[in-house]
Design brief:
The complex is a heterodimer of chains A (111) and B (112). Chain A has 111 residues and is mostly beta strands. In chain A, 0% of the residues lie in helices and 52% in strands. The chains are: A mainly beta (111), B mainly beta (112). The A-B interface holds A 31, 33, 40-43, 45, 48, 50, 56, 58, 90, 92, 94, 96-105 and B 31, 33, 41-45, 48, 88, 92, 96-100, 102-105.
Chain lengths: 111, 112
């Protein structure tokens, strides 16, 4: 099992550009999450999904959109990137009340 | 909303010394999960505590959940350089979305 994979691993965007981060999991987990991690800020939840076809806002959803058309995939979109979105993005998945499994992260820089 | 406070923010120790990080809440926690993130890596689950007063051990790591379920601790005995990283505690939302409420983490540096 690959677990949770994320693509791309690194990306540099210019302000105003758009991109999509892809998260895939092969563990048949219902729950999936997108976090951003900034120095001193811990992990902040952007959006999450409790099952295929569902999405919900986390604590910092502004400037991001998500989709979960297939159970194994959770996409995070930035429609118009801003320097404030420079961060490390982690995707995670979980099976009900159990632990979250994290992907390796995407390091995004917006100039 | 519910917050999980984690202290200290940073800790430097000499290899062989013990280390403890604490997780506190003003409200009763449904459970506590502990994660470790190595520098440049991603968070990795260590353990989950559910019961009041629960104590679990993993080799040199000892995890405790307070009797009132408002605090938890992670203690590492005789630290090694492989223990370097940031340790996070998190409380799982008791509702149906399974969100985790995260502490800000304790960064551990170990001098060889």
């Amino acid at each position: 099992n690959a677990g949770v994979t994320q693509t791309p691993k690194f990306r540099v965007l210019k302000t105003g550009q758009s991109m999509t981060l892809l998260c895939a999991q092969d563990m048949n987990h219902e729950y999936m999450y997108w976090y951003r991690q900034d120095p001193g800020m811990g992990l902040r939840l952007i959006h999450y999904s409790v099952g295929e076809g569902t999405t919900a806002k986390g604590e910092v959803p502004d400037g991001y959109n998500v989709s979960r058309l297939k159970k194994q995939n959770f996409l995070l979109g930035l429609e118009s990137a801003a320097p404030s979105q420079t961060s490390v993005y982690f995707c995670a998945s979980s099976r009900d009340v159990y632990e979250q499994y994290f992907g390796p992260g995407t390091r995004l820089t917006v100039t | 909303g519910q917050q999980v406070m984690q202290i200290p923010q940073y800790q430097h120790v000499q290899e062989g010394e013990d280390f403890t990080t604490y997780c506190n809440s003003s409200t009763t926690l449904s459970n506590i999960q502990w994660y470790k993130q190595r520098p440049g890596g991603h968070p990795v689950f260590l353990i989950q505590l559910v019961k009041s007063g629960e104590v679990k051990k993993q080799k040199r790591l000892t995890f405790q959940f307070g009797e009132a379920k408002k605090n938890s601790s992670l203690h590492i005995t005789a630290t090694q350089t492989t223990d370097v990283g940031t340790y996070f505690c998190a409380n799982q939302n008791a509702g149906n979305n399974r969100k985790l409420i995260w502490g800000l983490g304790t960064s551990l540096a170990v001098n060889p």
